[in-house]
Amino acid sequence: MIFSDETTIRMNSVKGQVWNLPGKKKVMRTVKHPLKVNVWGCFSARGFGRVVCFKENLNADLMCHIYKYGLLPTVRKQFGHDSTFSKLQEDNDPEHTSKKATTWRMNNNVEKINWPSMSPDIAPIENVWELLKMKLRKKKHSTYQSLVSSIKRQWKSLSQELAIKLVYGMNNRISELIESDGDFILY
């Protein structure tokens, strides 16, 4: 199984909570429209694959480009040229379900597993995005390119042990989701 997804990383984003004492206001400066990097990545129990950074909004054409230059090289490296040993997990974003992307996957023997529509984000790559964003918040970036470089460096530093734990933790995630009748779960 290869898990894949996209996320947006904003330059110098700060995430956290602020406690205000009664009668005292905390002023926090924010940037109205911070620079952002869209990121696609994938991984399996065999490790983290390619990561692709892009500025434009994702559409079917770009998705096919990412499949060709991000997904296929990962599949070949991790599973050899016979991609029938792997299956792709991705959510039901319109770019993934488009006729163009579906045809591309079919023509390139990429089998996608069925994923329920309107499903909670239980795919383990969601944890990877949060971990990556936490690491990136520790350093200030002054340019788009420095943020992209940091993203790629941090992605490359993710260990195969982490990938294995996340993949094999899916059984627990699914069990918890069933027990909660599809409601929110902590993971």
TrEMBL record:
Q: Which residues form the signal peptide?
A: none
Which Pfam families does the entry mention? Answer: DDE_3
Q: Which residues form a coiled coil?
A: none
Ranges for domain Tc1-like transposase DDE: 1-147
A GO term for molecular function: nucleic acid binding
Which superkingdom heads the taxonomic lineage of this protein's source? Eukaryota
List the InterPro entries: RNaseH_sf, Tc1-like_DDE_dom, Transposase_5
Identification of the protein by name? Tc1-like transposase DDE domain-containing protein
Question: Which species is the source of this protein?
Answer: Rotaria magnacalcarata
